[in-house]
Amino acid sequence: MRPGKRPIITFSLIGLCVVLFGLQLLSGTITGANPDPVTAALWYAPLQTSPWVFEPWRMLSSALVHSPSNAMHLLFNMFALWFIGRAIEPALGALRYLALLLLSALGGSVAVLFLTPAMTPTLGASGAVFGLFGALFILMRATGSQTGGILTLIGINVVISFVIPGISWQGHFGGLVVGALCALVFAKSAPAASGDRRRDAARQARRQGLGLLGITGLLLLLIIVGMQLVTPAG
């Protein structure tokens, strides 16, 4: 971690998820509802991006809530976010790191939209976490670092996604792919050195911004296509 560079986004997201988890438990205890009102308000199922319901914000809000009946769901995601986020956020900077998290979470939900039954709800930060896995692999490759450890970690988590029931492998897959794409934008956008550092930095920022806009546009296009395919019985 660079001196003076604190992973504010990472710690803020962990804090928000923990607070929301407490609210999930509290609202469930008070109302006796299952699912509790907080979970029901924020989770995502493909039907909720259909023309009949159309609540697309859930594709991102679902990343903030976790299964209230399984604290390990929250603990694993927050540990992974803390462990990897502390390394990636200072390296990328807050804005690029935030874009990586948001697009990875959205990518996970887009995969859920296409690959999950319409009425099946999903929740959790796993899509964003897998996006960090994919990004870390690409960034390590770009810097010539050994990638055996991160590949092993990804492999273990992919196996877990398929072996343990109730885990959304679709969200993991979408997050992993989009996170890797974002990292490719970051790693491949450096312009040829001109001798003017400020100009080079500005050109790199423009290229990265255009790359991220391209990924965002692709995801939005996929959402538009996917919402036309959703049926209540799908």
Automatic annotation (TrEMBL):
GO terms for molecular function: serine-type endopeptidase activity. Keywords: Hydrolase, Membrane, Protease, Transmembrane, Transmembrane helix. It is a multi-pass membrane protein. Gene3D superfamilies: Rhomboid-like. InterPro entries: Peptidase_S54_rhomboid_dom, Rhomboid-like_sf, Rhomboid_protease_S54. Its main location: membrane. GO terms for cellular component: membrane. One of its GO terms (biological process) is proteolysis. The keyword Transferase does not apply. The chain crosses the membrane at residues 59-85, 97-116, 122-140, 147-167, 173-190, 210-230. Belongs to the peptidase S54 family. This is Membrane associated rhomboid family serine protease. The lineage of its organism: Bacteria, Bacillati, Actinomycetota, Actinomycetes, Micrococcales.
